[in-house]
Design brief:
By secondary structure, this protein is an alpha+beta fold. The protein is built from 5 helices and 7 strands, in the order ααβαββββαββα.
Length: about 190
């Protein structure tokens, strides 16, 4: 019994601390799923202009089930609606490394703009160049599936020249664009 006593005391202390952690977590947890964060607001404003007050989050219960059965669409983390009814889809896609967070605005079935919310672990000076507005603007007005090409002098309507030495990161942006266009088509361009 003397040998078991310290083990029992330690187990009780661990259980007590675990319970306290759960209580503190539940008491301090803030649900941000229906909040536009500063980074998201900056991305949507970069795409559509206006102010943070011009946008609202589309509650996840209106789109999550619709998108969950599609592997690409399940990468969407937030849908934001502009006061004019246009939509912005935030998704986390794979660039050179995982966790490339991109917002794509879609209006009337075409890309209204693209903004990087967070570059994650992209290579500084290479992959991070995909955050350059000149590159992101190449996606504007695209519809259908967009592909990345290398150094093509006259890319087709659905093609975008990737950033040199940042092919994976460029493809990550294109993936987010394709996801947003697919999501827009699937929801019919609106959420009621």
């Amino acid at each position: 019994m003397d040998k078991a006593k310290p083990i029992i005391v330690l187990a009780l202390i661990a259980a007590l601390i675990s319970g306290l952690v759960i209580v503190v977590y539940n008491a301090t947890y803030v649900d941000t799923s229906n909040i536009v964060t500063d980074k998201q607001a900056a991305a949507v404003t970069q795409i559509y202009g206006g102010t943070k007050d011009d946008y609202e989050v589309v509650p996840a219960e209106k789109w999550q089930d619709m998108f969950s059965s599609d592997a690409d669409l399940s990468k969407i983390t937030k849908v934001i609606k502009n006061k004019d009814g246009s939509l912005a889809f935030e998704s986390v896609v794979k660039g050179y490394k995982n966790g490339y967070d991109i917002m794509v605005g879609v209006k009337d079935g075409k890309v209204a703009g693209v903004a990087v919310v967070s570059v994650g672990e992209e290579t500084p000076g290479l992959g991070t160049k995909t955050n350059d507005p000149a590159f992101l603007d190449l996606f504007k007005d695209k519809s259908g599936e967009v592909t990345i090409v290398k150094n093509k002098s006259n890319p087709a309507d659905n093609e975008v020249n990737g950033v040199t030495s940042a092919t994976f990161s460029s493809k990550g942006v294109a993936s987010a664009v394709n996801i947003a266009l697919k999501a827009y088509e699937k929801c019919g361009g609106e959420f009621k």
